[in-house]
Specification:
There is one protein chain. By secondary structure, the chain is mainly α. The chain has one domain. The protein has five helices and no strands. Helix 2 crosses helix 3. The chain is globular, with a radius of gyration of 16 Å.
């Protein structure tokens, strides 16, 4: 089981790299700024938990780092979960597994921000949705593709 989880984490890390590459390519092509949503989510969660990030001059940098780390955690954790699900016998074609994996990762990032009132996906434009969906599809295809390929190596 530990190997299954480790393979899933590695696949999720590769998928996270693909997601980040797609996001940065979109930023470069359109000239759009980085999203501050991860930082706002972290700030909201830590404040509600009663342990806010200290209000020092480097607070913004800490929130940026914690926001990025939370994305890595979701990516590797989703990869581990998908690997465990696959080990349990759920097998779908890579294209479908990739879409489902991407949708799961997207839900795990978008649901908290909606629940916390940081952003409301119901108000997003088509361009906003594309900026979220396309990188998550890349994440899902890479992650599920690696998890699925690693099964064949055993």
């Amino acid at each position: 089981m530990i190997r299954t989880i480790a393979r899933g984490c590695a696949a999720g890390a590769a998928g996270t790299t693909a997601l980040n590459a797609m996001t940065y390519a979109d930023m470069a092509l359109r000239g759009r700024p980085a999203s501050s949503t991860p930082e706002v989510v972290i700030d909201t969660i830590t404040t509600r938990l009663g342990c806010p990030v200290p209000d020092t001059r480097d607070r913004g940098n800490r929130l940026t780092g914690l926001g990025a780390l939370s994305g890595i955690a979701v990516g590797t954790g989703t990869g581990a979960a998908v690997s465990l699900i696959r080990r349990a016998g759920v097998r779908v074609p890579v294209w479908l597994g990739g879409l489902l994996t991407g949708a799961l990762a997207m839900a795990l990032t978008d649901a908290p921000m909606a629940r916390l009132g940081v952003s409301d996906p119901r108000t997003w434009s088509a361009r906003d949705w594309a900026s979220d969906v396309v990188p998550h599809i890349a994440y899902g295809l890479v992650t599920y593709g690696i998890v699925s390929a690693s099964d064949r190596q055993l």
